[in-house]
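I wish you would study the pair of lines that follows with an eye to the fold:

===
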Amino acid sequence: MDKELADILEQLLKFRRERDWEQFHRPKELAISIVLEAAELLEEFQWKTDKEIIRHLKEGGLENIRDEVADIAVYILLLSHDLEIDLMDAIRKKLKKNAEKYPVEKARGSAKKYDKL
């Protein structure tokens, strides 16, 4: 794991330990929290046109979005740690799988799912 990411994880674990929150951070609860925070992220964009989103970002919405993205990342880091998933390795492996599922010659410029290419 990258040094900076490892440092952040250590800070998160210390924060959690100090508050005795490990008892609440079972995998199911962490997974639920990821989805809930992702829904809060979606709310920042809901019902807005592209122009309204640009205005929203300039008027302070970017700070809210930054916070929601951070919340999602925090829960992903904690879940990965607790399940002993090497997050960086998992991402590298997933990129390899995606490269196989979405070869450039078939997927370039297409939003189709791999089984529809």
Remarks:
- Helices lie at 3-19, 27-43, 50-82, 87-101, 104-107.
- The chain has two domains: 3-84, 86-117.
